[in-house]
Design goal:
The complex is a heterodimer of chains A (about 140) and B (about 425). With about 140 residues, chain A is of the alpha+beta class. Chain A has four helices and six strands, in the order E-H-H-E-E-E-E-H-E-H. The N and C termini of chain B lie far apart (about 75 Å). The chains are: A alpha+beta (about 140), B mainly alpha (about 425). Chain A: It holds the Pfam family YCII.
Chain lengths: ~140, ~425
């Protein structure tokens, strides 16, 4: 089963991180990522740039409203993620606990859906599978 | 020493807490067991004894963690407990020589603070590699290699291995006990093989992993929920091995082959469990992210620049299928060439039959039939349903319907798969009598 480790940090924690030695952070994260890779469990992972570079598309109104980041209402910012493949929820928890993060940060751990999680005879599920393939195909021919 | 087992039954007043602790212990064990056993083997010199000690530490964890909580560094805790056990054992046998005395001093100086005493990052990778080579050592039978690899390197319990292979737990326990004895009796050194035997020993490691992977590839049965994902475990271990041997193209290629094969898992069976042949699978259910990982692994293998051997060629064939939008849009000419290369490397009638299918798709039925006829004359595939199935298909495409029907009916009699039997008979029935 696959789990996504979603990293969130409060503004204070993000600010505190900026005070820290950047090389130290990189080294600690690098070691953590390496341990995931060496264990053969890491499938994907990305870190995100400053929230100020991002924007929000809000669906409270129609058409949706686009607002520049950072987002006034968010208490915690989503900063990056890992996807790992493990044999149990507890194993995902063990890996998450080893992440070199400090106070004010947290990892939300969520299981990634697999095809089997959906009713296979639903017409929309089948259509979505078709769209996914079409998108992949297009991406393949463009790239 | 008795065969103890990973997370099993421990009586505790609060089953809920105990159950959670047991699951945590199992998870820690999955993550740490290879490093713990590798570290202990370096100290005690024998894989079997190291594994026994680690198992004793695990039992200790099951007793203590439910009450005292999981230590901050559980892997170090387990290692320290196991080392203490080793020293106690030597003390009892009054064989406390200088080496063990040093170990004991080391432990005592650090007191109970296990979290600072951890494996040496400079040597642990090499130790894990040694552990993998020892688990797949040629003095062991294939079955013993598989059980020991899953147990020691993968961190699975005997019970989990037994469920994966659908055999009684006692059988697996016996295999492991015997394997440890065999290794000790043969005085198998804890080392990476010497250059003159390296390729062969690496081949043994990779084939053990591939066998484990294929065991899990068996179609899902009704009891799949209790059957551990052993293919996933084989893939994980293959990634570990590939990471430890970045310069071995076949290790990278095996990862690629497994990724491509596993990408089709969701599409490989019908809802009633019958296998669906590749050309009829719903390709929208193939895992695209997994295919991308397979291509990345194959590219890593190719970048090493030592050409492609068996797993490399098989992975390349699997990639041709994985990236093709439909069965007919597949690069069959390339697949035919890859099978030809594979056949030159290790001649096999099954590879030759697969080449014939690719030739039929790329060049046409007449040239493919010449290959298949030769195989039929050779007799090595007698009783193998795919041979008459392919031959029948080719004859039908050439309009030789009477011969085709006979071949398809023969294939239908030989196959063990009901769905395939029905398809073959339907195909045979649809053929009109040959026009003379």
């Amino acid at each position: 089963m696959k789990y996504m480790l979603i990293m969130r940090a409060t503004d204070e924690a993000t600010a505190a991180y900026e005070e820290m030695d950047f090389n130290e952070i990189i080294a600690a994260m690098g070691a953590y990522n390496e341990s995931l890779m060496k264990a053969g469990v890491l499938l994907a992972g990305e870190g995100l740039t400053d929230a100020a570079e991002g924007f929000v598309v809000d669906f409270d109104s129609t058409p949706p409203v686009v607002t520049d980041g950072p987002y006034a209402e968010a208490k915690e910012l989503f900063n990056g993620f890992w996807i790992i493949q493990v044999s149990s929820k507890e194993e995902a928890a063990e890996w998450a606990k080893r992440c070199p993060l400090g106070p004010g940060t947290r990892l939300e751990v969520r299981r990634v859906t697999e095809l089997e999680d959906f009713p296979q005879d639903n017409e929309w599920i089948q259509k979505e599978a078709g769209w996914r393939e079409e998108l992949e195909h297009k991406a393949g021919t463009n790239g | 020493m008795n065969e103890t087992d990973a997370p099993g039954t421990v009586d505790a007043p609060n089953t809920d807490v105990a159950d959670r602790a047991r699951r945590t212990v199992a998870a820690v064990w999955r993550i740490e067991s290879a490093r713990i056993v590798a570290t202990l083997t370096r100290f005690v010199g024998d894989v079997g004894q190291a594994e026994d000690l680690a198992q004793e530490a695990l039992v200790e964890a099951l007793k203590q963690w439910p009450d005292e909580g999981v230590p901050r560094n559980p892997g170090a805790w387990l290692t320290a407990v196991a080392k203490r056990r080793a020293i106690d054992g030597w003390r009892r046998r009054e064989r406390l020589d200088e080496r063990y005395a040093a170990m004991a001093r080391d432990l005592e100086q650090r007191g109970g603070e296990a979290s600072d005493m951890f494996w040496d990052p400079d040597t642990i990778d090499d130790d894990i590699l040694r552990l993998i080579f020892v688990s797949c050592h040629p003095v062991l039978s294939r079955e013993a290699q598989i059980a020991l690899t899953l147990r020691i390197v993968g961190g699975l319990s005997s019970d989990e291995i037994a469920r994966a292979f659908l055999v009684p737990t006692a059988t697996i326990q016996q295999r492991i006990v015997r394997a440890k004895k065999t290794l000790a009796a043969a005085k198998v050194p804890f080392e990476v093989p010497k250059p003159n035997e390296y390729t062969e020993r690496l081949g043994s490691v990779l084939s053990v992993l591939y066998l484990i992977f294929n065991e899990g590839y068996l179609p899902a049965s009704g009891e799949q929920w209790v059957r551990p994902d052993v293919s996933g475990e084989a893939l994980r271990l293959a990634r570990v091995v590939a990471g430890l041997m970045p310069k071995e193209p076949e290790a990278q290629s095996l990862v690629a082959l497994m990724e491509f094969t596993a990408s089709r898992f969701a599409a490989r069976t019908a809802r009633d469990g019958t296998p669906i042949p590749l050309d009829q699978q719903d390709r929208s259910r193939w895992d695209r992210a997994q295919i991308a990982r397979g291509s990345a692994a194959l590219a890593r293998a190719d970048r090493i620049g030592r050409g492609r051997a068996s797993y490399g060629l098989q992975a390349a064939i699997a990639e041709c299928h994985a990236v093709a939008p439909t069965a007919s849009d597949t690069d069959w000419a390339r697949i035919a060439l890859l099978y030809e290369a594979l056949g030159r490397l290790a001649p096999s009638p099954v590879v030759e039959l697969n080449r014939a299918v690719a030739v039929a798709m790329s060049t046409g039925p007449a040239s493919a039939l010449r290959i298949v006829d030769e195989l039929a004359v050779g007799g090595k595939l007698a009783g193998y349903a795919p041979l008459p199935a392919v031959r029948g298909e080719l004859l039908a495409r050439l309009g030789r319907n009477d011969e085709a029907r006979a071949e398809l009916e023969l294939a239908a009699r030989l196959t063990g798969n009901e769905r395939e039997r029905a398809a073959l008979l339907a195909k045979a029935a649809a053929l009109e009598a040959s026009v003379e």
